[in-house]
Design a protein that fits this description.
Keywords: Repeat. It holds the Pfam family PRD. The chain is α+β, with helices and mostly antiparallel strands. The chain folds into three domains: 1-54, CAT RNA-binding domain (Transcription Regulation, Sacy, Chain A, Roll), CATH 2.30.24.10; 66-167, PRD domain (PTS-regulatory domain, PRD), CATH 1.10.1790.10; 170-281, PRD domain (PTS-regulatory domain, PRD), CATH 1.10.1790.10. Helices cover 60% and strands 6% of the residues. It contains twelve helices and four strands; from the N terminus they run E-E-E-E-H-H-H-H-H-H-H-H-H-H-H-H. It has helices at 57-64, 68-85, 92-109, 119-125, 127-144, 150-164, 170-191, 200-218, 221-224, 229-238, 240-257, 263-277; strands spanning 2-6, 11-15, 21-25, 46-48. Helix 4 (119-125) crosses helix 5 (127-144). Mean pLDDT is 90; it is low at 281-285.
């Protein structure tokens, strides 16, 4: 492994024999070293392993002005997230997370708290990401002695939602979450019931809404439409109540988002609504 850039005495950018770049942390790794020299592997404490062969310039710039403590915390949080959900996050998670942690700690040291208006929705619709956020609070507390609340955990969770969706913007994540919440409320109000959050059908329903909302905002519905009128009529007749609920959701989308569901989307959503609201999947009230 060869040194390509020295950020400081303890953080360097290195490259292996096949040209894959890494950010490497270790006490004295960069001390009295020069670009092109071999890395002292015995001193390596942590290695940022990215999906891309080359480290994004934005991350390089950020590391150049970030203390080792923040890098280690971010790397541990991402490592825990990968253990929980797999290696499904884009490399942007390092950029957004390091930047966010620095800003959040600065705020807390100044006693400036920020509330997340989507806290309830994040906890409900992104359970795994929220638990990653809660675990991140323990890591931050252990490193910096700062105890943050669940609002901060939800902000961290949203960064992982972004990274799971190929680094989509935070604005789109907020919009997707709001759409999911609105559709969820239409279903529960229409059926006048609480859904069983422990059921498999509930998990499938929420996952469907997440991807549906993403397709809606990305204008990808028409690309997926098969126009299967026969299946549409079958579902409409067989699941009349669920189809009517889907109709209400379509009206909401037309009114608030100026977008209507394709035939395929109506079929898929109707089936999910039927499954999640059948009696065996209802929460006891």
């Amino acid at each position: 492994m060869i040194i390509r850039q020295i950020f400081n005495n303890n953080v360097i950018r290195a490259e292996n024999q096949v040209g894959h770049e890494f950010v490497v942390i270790g006490n004295g790794l960069g001390f009295k070293k020069k670009n092109g020299q071999r890395v002292d592997v015995e001193k390596i404490e942590k290695t940022f392993v990215l999906k891309s062969d080359k480290i994004p310039q934005k991350l390089i710039d950020l590391i150049g002005e970030t203390s080792v403590a923040y890098l280690k915390v971010a790397d541990e949080i991402v490592g825990n997230a990968k253990q929980e959900m797999g290696d499904i996050f884009s490399d942007n998670i390092y950029i957004s997370l390091i930047d966010h942690i620095q800003f959040a700690i600065s705020r807390y040291r100044k006693s400036v708290g920020v509330k997340n208006s989507l806290l309830w929705q994040i906890k409900k619709f992104y359970k795994k990401e929220f638990m990653i956020g809660m675990g991140a609070l323990d890591i931050i507390d252990a490193q910096f002695g700062i105890q943050m609340d669940e609002h901060e955990a939800s902000f961290i969770a949203m960064h992982f939602v972004n990274a799971r969706q190929d680094g989509q913007g935070m604005k789109q994540t907020v919009e997707i979450t709001e759409i999911i919440d609105d559709i969820f409320n239409i279903v529960t109000d229409y059926y006048e019931l609480e859904l069983d959050e422990t059921s498999c059908n509930y998990s499938r329903f929420i996952t469907h809404l997440q991807y549906f909302a993403q397709r809606l905002l990305s204008n990808e519905q028409d690309q997926r439409a098969s126009g299967d009128n026969f299946l549409y009529e079958q579902v409409k007749d067989k699941y009349a109540q669920a189809f009517q609920c889907t109709h209400l959701i379509n009206q909401y989308l037309e009114l608030k988002h100026e977008s209507a569901m394709s035939i395929d989307e109506k079929v898929y959503l109707t089936i999910h609504i039927q499954r999640v609201t059948t009696r065996k999947d209802m929460a006891s009230s």
